[in-house]
């Protein structure tokens, strides 16, 4: 689920067209870590978390560029120490995908004119 609030503007300033935007959004996420992680090795207690789904929200505030955003992560169920690194890695991949989407939005916005 994605909720988006967007306020882009185009403003000519000193003869240069400025593409400004400031928006915020929230994305719900779910992660189901594989037992043993990417290495495939069995870990103590892996069977206990094999069917556990972790979820939460990423909240992006004051997004003005792909690399400029306040991001907060909330969990509905905080992962155990056993799977926390895998959940963190999955969230890092999600954040990278979001940053790429924001860069795409920036590129599209720059093609617009008044």
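-> sequence recovered:
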């Amino acid at each position: 689920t994605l909720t988006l609030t967007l306020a882009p503007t185009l403003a000519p300033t000193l003869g240069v067209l400025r593409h400004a935007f400031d928006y915020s959004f929230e994305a719900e996420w779910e992660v189901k870590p594989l037992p043993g992680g990417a290495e495939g090795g069995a870990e103590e207690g892996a069977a206990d978390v094999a069917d556990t789904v972790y979820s939460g929200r990423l909240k992006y505030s004051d997004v003005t560029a792909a690399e400029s955003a306040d991001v907060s992560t909330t969990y509905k169920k905080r992962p155990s120490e056993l799977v926390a690194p895998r959940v963190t890695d999955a969230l890092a991949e999600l954040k990278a995908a979001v940053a790429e989407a924001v860069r795409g939005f920036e590129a599209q916005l720059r093609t617009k004119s008044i």
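Strands lie at 2-6, 9-13, 16-20, 23-31, 54-65, 68-75.
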